């Protein structure tokens, strides 16, 4: 049974249930969190203007930078030779953001980091003692002072023609980081795969936030919290419209040890090369 818990951010019983759900499925869904649907809709509308402008290309990263605009079909999933049908913008704490979007986007970034830190505290408090022994330091402390926390603004354009075989909005993948806080997308499409290979729709009603464990948390917990594979499927013909979503990828400081022979910085560099975002 693939029982992704839907739980209230304000319910005292939620921390333990959150830890259970992440252990058993790699996912959980939050309601009653601090970021209102109006704020999310407003951000999607504002960034929609940006993605529909030619000026977006002025924000492409230069050199080794990873903040800014990544054009359509910049990224592929690990082990996939086909690029995803998406474009996106990376917002880091010290990265550049278009002036007309900065105040709203920075506020979302800060609030999502606060939520993420709280959720890591839940996992710290409710992980079994043997699992805690794997942590090189308490989970919220791994996040403290990190400048790697990444808010990704994703735009999946309407599909104007049939894509090439194997091309989807986001191919099956696991996330790199500790946990991902994914605000409800403007359209459905997110699916998670259970251990038998069956895909399940992840709820995305307004006001919901999907949380999933990443590879770093799986590694740091000795496999207790699995980085469940997920994907964003192409829309059916009757729902062929653009889709927006905003995942916050919570990253530890680069020097944090995930296991004796791997730091967070080393693991991140390795994965960025695998998905085509680092040479």
Any descriptors?
eight-stranded mixed sheet, Jelly Rolls, globular, 7 helices, 279 residues, alpha+beta, single chain
Overview of the molecule:
The strands form three sheets. This protein has an eight-stranded mixed β-sheet with strand order 1-2-10-7-12-5-4-3. A four-stranded antiparallel β-sheet has the order 6-11-8-9, with no helix packed on it. A two-stranded antiparallel sheet has the order 13-14. Strand 13 and strand 14 form a beta hairpin. The radius of gyration is 18 Å and the shape is globular. The longest helix is centred in the middle third of the chain and has 28 residues, at 99-126. It has a single domain, classed as Jelly Rolls (Sandwich). Helix 1 packs across helix 3 (99-126) and helix 2 (37-51) crosses helix 3. It has helices at residues 14-25, 37-51, 99-126, 129-132, 139-143, 215-220, 264-274, and strands spanning 6-8, 27-31, 68-70, 87-91, 150-156, 170-173, 179-183, 190-193, 199-201, 209-213, 230-232, 243-250, 257-259, 262-263. 29% of the residues lie in helices and 22% in strands.
Q: Helical stretch count? A: 7
Q: Write the element-wise H/E pattern from the N-terminal end onward.
A: EHEHEEHHHEEEEEEHEEEEH
Structural class category: alpha+beta
Largest sheet at a glance?
Answer: 8 strands, mixed
Low-confidence stretches: none
| Radius of gyration of CA atoms, rounded to a whole number | 18 Å
Whole-number tally of structural domains:
1
Whole-number mean pLDDT:
95
Biggest sheet, strands in spatial order? 1-2-10-7-12-5-4-3
- At the first level of CATH, what is the class? Mainly Beta
Quaternary assembly: single chain
Q: If you consult CATH, what is the topology?
A: Jelly Rolls
